[in-house]
Design brief:
The protein has 3 domains: 195 residues, FAD/NAD(P)-binding domain (3-Layer(bba) Sandwich); 188 residues, D-Amino Acid Oxidase, subunit A, domain 2 (D-Amino Acid Oxidase, Chain A, domain 2); 135 residues, Helicase, Ruva Protein, domain 3, CATH 1.10.8. Helix content is 34%, strand content 20%. It contains 18 helices and 19 strands. The chain is globular. The termini are far apart.
Length: 614
């Protein structure tokens, strides 16, 4: 198997059919082009500029029809951030592209990260300067290309000492690392790090222990909603560049001619397989990459070493902070992030080997204890498991490298976060490793290999300066007088623009037509009713969990609120998804059972008994 690791010059930036819906056309698709989605041309040589492909609706039924009827240049397997990025890059280069995901988009690692778009300050300790440079360059591209989804976030590094004195070596080490971080690319965000005193540190995180706090540093990175970022990338590929995408479509076999892969067999809702012909197959399935490789090669190559990372959420009044913080873990050489998110604060993460079911990583009691003890070492108001409102566990697809840094003898926290693109003898292209921040670079490197293999498509990726869906049209919605002009409250406008960017127009139109659509999903919820309807109608959500856990993020941050909202949300989306009353009840029960299982695994209190019915 040939392999290409990412190496860049350090300082160069260069059929379960969709259930009946009231409106099958995707928001933002051009009405004048409806009905013109037949077989698409536009294939080009490397030298010629490819003919733009017409946009297609972001609709599963439409996608399944095309998957079974048309040949593709490239089939991308895996609907996380990497797979969505590959689909966008390939489609933008003029390749006829299909994307399939066996579950929901971003249902794995891509919805369960730390939600940070960052250079990785700690990677400097591992002398991964090139990786930090690449990360920071990609961070800036995301801030520019997705301003509605990626925003700057200040971080506090408190300095603790004894008797009011900080260890000078520790202080100098942090200062040197932060200067290197700034010079490596951190300054692109427009602010450099600075040292602050105790009073300012306490203004940001009031419950820090004053008997140990000596000073602090503030530096800048960025955060995102990882699941919505993944969805925006996939929607951009489909609506702006003619890709085809479908969720809940597992690959069951690879099709080969004379030993070369030529397509895949897909299972569609247990009703029978469909075969998709594709000139190239990209395996972008993250921690499941070895499963697809086994379909190709007949054996599990064990190239991935999964590492589990968990996060817990608490109410912000339990751990008050107005910026993020980085707290050292006394028991080892790691740190945890404390990140404000609306009325909640989430804390994480762990980094441990994982050998359990890849589909079902759980936050366990020892994980919760680790995170809470890390925080409690440095605050005056200790947290307990009773304070935890939400938990999530995800798996990092780290590269296994027997005998090297990926050896089982090494801690997962010490393994490189670089990515790798490899090609099997049959021509399956696999992209593994990497991290959320560098998804675009990973995708570009992967499609470079696709273009080389096929001998067609643009040689260079155009995505570095490509705005994602929602990036355009934000300013108009944020102008003074927008509330009066649209007939919608300013707070609702601000919330929707912050999550959907310019695409918030569609949601604001719903609210304007029916003011109840602007009401909270549940008392105290930041989400409004229009968002649930929009998710079902325009964002390919098919289950209650799709809506509450990924289109909205209610489940991650407040289990109780999500469980309370479940019946109302199910009632809102049922007409668009064609659910019968019995199916609506089943969706509610399934969702609540899943939440209870998450809480039980972490030994947290179950939801109130009154939540078990409608």
């Amino acid at each position: 198997m040939s392999q290409r690791r990412s190496r860049r010059p350090l300082f160069r930036e260069r059929r379960r059919r969709s259930l009946p819906r009231s409106s099958p056309r995707s928001a933002g698709a051009s009405p004048g082009r409806r009905g013109h989605y037949g077989k698409l041309g536009g294939r080009s040589s490397m030298a010629a500029s490819p003919t733009p492909l017409p946009p297609t609706p972001f609709d599963r039924a439409h996608a399944l029809d095309r998957l079974g009827d048309e040949p593709f240049d490239v089939l991308v397997v895996g609907g996380g951030i990497t797979g969505a990025g590959v689909a966008l890059d390939a489609a933008a280069r003029g390749l006829k592209t299909a994307l399939v995901e066996r579950g929901d988009f971003a249902c794995g690692t891509s919805s369960k990260s730390s939600k940070l778009v960052h250079g990785g300050l700690r990677y400097l300790q591992q002398r991964e300067v090139r990786l930090v440079y690449e990360n920071l360059a990609e961070r800036q591209r995301l801030l520019r290309n997705a301003p509605h989804l990626v925003s700057p976030l200040p971080f506090l590094i408190p300095l603790f000492g004894s008797d009011g004195v900080v260890n000078r070596a520790v202080s100098r080490a942090y200062s040197s690392a932060l200067w290197l971080y700034d010079l490596t690319g951190g300054l692109r965000i427009g602010r450099r790090h600075r040292r602050i005193g105790v009073e300012e540190a306490l203004a940001h995180v009031p419950t820090l222990r004053t008997d140990r706090l000596v000073a602090g540093f503030v530096y800048y990175d960025a955060r995102t909603d990882d699941a919505r970022l993944t969805l925006a990338v996939a929607r951009t590929a489909v609506l702006d560049h003619g890709a085809v995408a479908a969720n809940y479509v597992p690959v069951t076999a690879l099709l080969k001619d004379d030993g070369r892969v030529r397509g895949a067999r897909l299972d569609v809702d247990g009703t029978g397989p469909i075969e998709v012909r594709a000139s190239a197959i990209v395996n972008a399935t993250g921690v499941w990459a070895d499963h697809v490789r086994a379909l190709d090669e007949g054996a599990d190559p064990r190239s991935i070493r999964p590492a589990k990372g968990i996060h817990v959420s608490v109410r912000r009044d339990k751990l008050p902070c107005d910026i993020a913080a980085v707290l050292p873990v006394p028991s080892d050489r790691r740190s945890v992030f404390v990140v404000p998110w609306g009325d909640e604060v989430y804390v994480g993460t762990t980094d441990t080997d994982y050998s359990g079911p890849l589909d079902d990583p759980r936050c366990e009691p020892e994980d919760v204890d680790y995170v809470l003890q890390a925080v409690n070492s440095w605050v005056t108001r200790p947290l307990s498991p009773d304070d935890v409102t939400g938990v999530w566990a995800g798996l990092r697809p780290l590269l296994a490298d027997p005998g090297g840094r990926g050896s089982r003898r090494a801690r997962t926290a010490d393994l490189s976060r670089r990515h790798q693109v490899s090609v099997s003898p049959s021509g399956v292209i696999s992209v593994t490793g990497g991290k959320l921040t560098t998804y675009r670079r990973m995708a570009a490197d992967t499609v470079d290999e696709v273009v080389r293999l096929l001998g067609r498509g643009r040689r260079r990726s155009p995505t570095g300066s490509m705005p994602l869906r929602g990036a355009a049209g934000m300013a108009e919605l944020q102008e003074d007088g927008a509330s009066a002009r649209l007939g919608v409250d300013n707070s609702v406008i601000g919330h929707l623009v912050g999550r959907y960017g310019g695409e918030a127009r569609a949601l604001l139109a719903m609210v304007h037509a029916d003011p109840t659509m602007g009401e909270p999903l549940a008392p105290g919820s930041p989400y409004v009713r229009a968002e649930a309807v929009y998710a079902a109608r325009y964002e390919m959500a098919h289950t209650l969990d799709d809506v509450l856990s990924r289109r909205l993020r209610a489940t991650l941050h407040d289990h109780e609120a999500a469980a309370e909202a479940a019946p109302d949300v199910a009632g809102l989306v049922a007409p668009d998804l064609g659910w019968t009353p019995a199916e609506t009840d089943r969706q509610i029960a399934t969702f609540r059972q899943a939440v209870d299982l998450d809480r039980a695994a972490a030994h947290l209190a179950r939801l109130h008994a009154g939540h078990q019915g409608r």
